[in-house]
Write a structure and sequence with these properties.
Layout lengths: L2 H11 L3 E2 L12 E2 L8 E7 L2 E7 L7 E9 L7 E10 L5 E7 L6 E7 L4 E2 L3 E4 L10 E6 L11 H10 L9 E4 L16 E2 L2 E2 L10 E3 L2 E3 L3 H12 L2 H9 L1 E4 L14 E2 L6 E2 L1 H14 L5 E2 L30 H8 L1 E2 L2 E5 L3 E6 L27 E2 H9 L10 E4 L2 E4 L13 H13 L4 E6 L7 E2 L18 E2 L9 H13 L5 E5 L5 E6 L12 E5 L8 H7 L23 H8 L1 H10 L2 H6 L9 E5 L3 E8 L3 E9 L16 E8 L9 E8 L6
Parallel strand pairs: 1-7, 2-9, 3-17, 11-12, 12-17, 23-27, 27-30, 30-32
Antiparallel strand pairs: 3-4, 4-7, 5-6, 5-8, 8-10, 11-34, 13-14, 15-16, 18-19, 20-21, 22-23, 24-29, 25-26, 28-29, 31-32, 31-33, 34-35, 35-36, 36-37
Helix pairs in contact: 2-4, 3-5, 5-6, 11-12
Length: about 675
């Protein structure tokens, strides 16, 4: 990109452009004052010649101030590349974004912001992307789910410590954050002291909050801004943002725990919340440096969202989108799905799994009959297939769905198939996927895609009540593992177009998973079209933790967790059940012999899985080269207490899954190497 093109692009964006060579003749004498830049600095969405730089410098009065941004090739700013003045506005909560352009590809730069009194932010480090024809391997981390209210974020410190000691060619290019950057459900320690093994940390009060059970949730823009500031105040999050460029997509907690489109839901029926959706989008845009588009135009100074009203939504189109002007305007206030080409080997295709999502049919009151305390976390697979497909169920939608002795009315028989992506985003996704010439087409899907399945039909007689389903159980809907129709459409597209190197990376489940992307499992045909990975949470509590504190006297408890006499920690037999089946889980709970447990494995249950750890925390690292791709799980102990060690504390295990480049249309093959630790119940 030449200067004229960059200037034209910046003008079109309304962006402050930082261009090499634009160095002020008289430099400001800067002194670092981190207290005046309390959220530090960050960078995002790197391209070969540009990156977005960010800070927040709050002022007690006024509407507009100016900062000076400096860009250098060294952390001491002796090799200054460019300087530029940039506005910071009260209207944007005093956040500032600058487009640094005209940069060299695959190059480390340092940056800082300075106010008119010479007070400087901390120095930030960023890295530009390689050129699209750069043949060298690419490395990036992917993360999700960080709760400063309930946990500690030292997984980032481990990431930084290892990256700082790696040779340049092994350092990370960026961090992909797959959502739940914040948790909008805030607990107050004077009301709730503990949840599970966790001591509730005081992160302040949410202004104008609504109380839902023990949680306080935002009701306006000030509330969301408060929660973002509380999360970014965490030193480990702040250090990670200062070291790596982040590429981010929101999940559910950036808006509302059970939210979809512009609806919120707190145990009852969905409530329209169009102004709240706009507020959530605005706060995300203000605190996350990115190249997402917004309805008000491309400028980087302010969000300026549409003025919408809370209005009932009575009509939905054939993709489940609420056909009401305020709902459409609220959703359209920000379009977050986008793609990032990173060298010759990575095309990162990032989707938004909540803004266009149809109402989850398993969350509707009519579906409650399929869930039972007798079978925790189980939902009959055949029922979900019918509810997911609606009127498009192969062979025709039945009037009723059998469950035990009951014939449950099929409330979805006249409705369209469930969608997470929506019509327009799905068309864009297919176009980008089919046009990509990168070695690896990596789908950044915030929600998991790998099936979560169990075989309660194989429970021994007399062990609890008989399973009332017709076969396998799943966990219900809510992510792509239960969106059978849409997932099959996408995987058939990959197969029919002969798209090779198809890889999915996800978060949300607070657990580590590795396996194969396949639209169906036995007894149907098992035909993988790619590979898929899910990363554990940075800090948010997972299913294992919840199960340890629940099901105390439940007859099926051995399927989920077991605690042996004299042992302080419980073991997660849920991993064994998901990977091998109920008989294997019960055998391990009884004998503690993992080899005997694996000998009872049900080969038809989970041929798609090579690894699952429902208690995993940490992060994952992808290395993508011309001939192979590696995904490394770095799992840390449960982050329930502060760790002060410079390296972020110990590693529980380190496991690498590798796949050689496979022929388009051919089956992929994953190989597993345990580098450190013993994740024996996960394999």
């Amino acid at each position: 990109m030449d200067r004229r093109t960059a200037l034209a692009g910046a003008a079109a964006m309304g962006a402050t452009l930082l261009w090499p060579g634009a160095v002020r003749a008289k430099r400001i004498e800067a002194r670092e004052r981190r207290d005046l830049f309390p959220e530090g600095v960050a960078s995002g969405d790197p391209e070969p010649d540009s990156v977005i730089l960010w800070t927040r410098r709050p002022y007690a009065e006024g509407e507009r101030r100016q900062l000076t941004v400096e860009l250098a090739r060294d952390p001491a700013f002796a090799q200054l590349v460019a300087t530029r003045r940039a506005p910071v506005l009260a209207e944007a909560d005093w956040t500032c974004r600058v487009l640094a352009a005209g940069l060299k590809p695959r190059t480390v730069y340092w940056y800082r912001f300075i106010d008119d009194e010479g007070n400087a932010s901390r120095a930030g480090r960023t890295v530009t992307a390689p050129r699209p024809d750069d043949p060298d391997p690419v490395r990036f981390a992917f993360v999700s789910c960080q709760s400063v209210n309930e946990g500690w974020q030292h997984a980032y410190r481990r990431m930084i410590w290892e990256d700082d000691r790696a040779p340049p060619e092994r350092q990370l290019g960026f961090v992909l954050h797959l959502g739940d950057f914040i948790y909008e459900v805030v607990e107050y320690p004077d009301e709730v002291t503990h949840r599970y093994d966790r001591t509730i940390r005081d992160i302040g009060r949410v202004p104008n909050a609504r109380k839902v059970l023990n949680f306080h949730v935002p009701t306006d823009l000030d509330g969301y801004r408060t929660v973002y500031r509380a999360h970014i105040a965490d030193p480990d999050i702040q250090d990670a943002r200062a070291r790596f460029p982040f590429v981010c997509i929101g999940d559910n907690h950036e808006f509302s725990w059970q939210g979809w489109q512009s609806f919120i839901q707190y145990g009852g029926l969905p409530e329209p919340a169009q102004p709240l959706r706009v507020a959530a989008n605005q706060a995300w845009w203000e605190y996350i440096p990115s190249r997402v588009s917004k309805a008000s135009g491309p400028d980087l100074d302010r969000f300026d969202g549409p003025k919408v009203e809370k209005a009932a939504v009575a009509r939905f189109d054939d993709h489940g989108l609420g056909d009401e002007p305020n709902n459409r305007a609220a959703i359209g206030s920000m379009t977050a799905y986008r793609a990032l080409r990173y060298g010759a080997h990575v095309d990162l295709i990032i989707t938004d799994m909540h803004s266009y999502m149809m109402e989850d049919p398993t969350g509707r009151p009519e579906a409650a009959v399929f869930s039972s305390r007798d079978f925790p976390m189980f939902f009959p697979e055949e029922a979900l297939r019918a509810l997911d497909a609606g009127r498009a169920l192969p062979g025709g939608a039945p009037d009723t769905i059998a469950f035990g002795d009951a014939a449950v009315p099929n409330f979805r028989k006249e409705e369209p198939p469930f969608t997470l992506l929506g019509r327009e985003q799905k068309a864009w996704f297919k176009q980008r996927l089919s046009a990509s010439r990168a070695t690896w087409k990596i789908w950044a899907a915030s929600n998991g895609t790998l099936d979560w399945r169990a075989d309660p039909q194989n429970l021994p007689a007399g062990f609890g009540k008989p399973w009332p389903g017709r076969g396998y159980a799943c966990s219900g809907g809510g992510d792509l593992s239960g969106a059978y129709t849409e997932r099959a459409e996408l995987y058939d597209f990959v197969r029919d177009r002969g798209i090779g190197g198809f890889v999915t990376v996800s978060g949300d489940r607070h657990s580590f998973w590795a396996g194969y992307a396949a639209k169906t499992l036995p007894p149907a045909r098992f035909e993988p079209v790619g590979i898929a990975f899910i990363t554990g949470s940075i800090s948010a509590a997972g299913a294992q933790e919840a199960l340890e504190h629940g099901l105390k006297d439940h007859p099926l408890r051995p399927l989920y967790v077991v605690q042996r006499a004299g042992e302080p920690k419980q073991e997660c037999t849920l991993n064994v059940m998901l990977r091998h089946g109920v008989r294997s889980a019960l055998e391990y709970a009884r004998s503690g012999d993992i080899d005997r447990a694996r000998a009872l494995s049900n080969p038809d249950l989970a041929p798609h899985l090579t690894f699952v750890d429902m208690g995993g925390h940490g992060y994952s690292v992808v290395t993508a080269a011309a001939d192979r791709i590696d995904t490394e799980f770095v799992c840390i102990p449960r982050p329930v207490a502060e760790v002060t060690a410079p390296d972020g504390g110990p590693v529980r295990y380190r496991v690498v899954h590798s796949a050689a480049k496979w022929r388009a249309g051919g089956p992929p093959r994953l190989e597993q190497r345990i580098i450190e630790g013993d994740p024996k119940l996960s394999v």
